[in-house]
Fold Ketosamine-3-kinase.
Amino acid sequence: MSSQSQEQYQFIESILQQNLGEIGSIQDFQFFYGGNFNLAVRVKLKQGEYFIKWNQGDHEGLFPAEAKNLALIASTSTVPVPQVLGVGQLDEKEYLMMECIPTAEKKDNYWSDFGQKLAQLHHSSSKKGHGLDYDNFIGAAKQVNQWNQNGVNFFIQNRIKAQVDTALYHRRIDGDTNDAFEILYEKIPSIIPNETSALLHGDLWSGNAMVNQHGLVSLVDPSCYYGLREAEIAFTTMFGGFEKEFYEAYNESFPITKGFHERIPLYNLYPLMVHVNLFGEGYLPAVRKILDSYVG
Ligand code: ADP
């Protein structure tokens, strides 16, 4: 084992001991490099299997927020999520320890079951409107979740404009693009329907949907908030991978308002701008294309 791996091994052992007490020996482990900045490991002990992810301590508050997100989804008893077992700091790094999802073959009804469960999650609403009691992250990007009774205004201010302002500040977009966004903000309320808030996973791409031991969905890595559920369904189409049974079952359980397909590009300006801020300007042509179609 290289000295770097040995260090990581000891780090993992210490986290397990911090949260489980006496652990015996590690039987097996497998590293993941899932996200762009977190490291993760699946680790097997005699008493069970665990999943731990950590970062270099450079995203303060990210894992405590993720732990709250997971607990919030779990509290709805709708879509399963892994149980959080520990969140903390060690050697100036931050970590999140949770139950490991043992994977299995997808059951035939995986997609329709997923669609129904997501619809049930979306039936959880908040009297406070759109937002959340705490800020959290999408990937490494901060999500400000200040409550707003108007979902469309929340979407404009706290989602699109927040990312556009960050991109402008860091000169990832130019003044012309910002001007086009300013015009778009005025138009959005006549395009997007203002619905009751729904509890969203918030980062629902196929990489965050796992197949659990029952052959059914478990969701990981949430970036929750109470928001417009159409934004969540639009998100699933951005990188694809969701089968038509998923959409059919969702729509049967919780019908989507007519005209949704035309609104998808507008909703996806949010994840696209997050990508511009996190991964660079390669995502800008896609943003410009959507802007041009609305603003000209
Ligand atoms: P990041 O926040 O770094 O993107 P994720 O939470 O998305 O990390 O995890 C990366 C990958 O690790 C996921 O795509 C999934 O394959 C796997 N994974 C995540 N959580 C668990 C878990 N609780 N049990 C087993 N595998 C998991």
Summary: The first helix runs from residue 3 to 20.
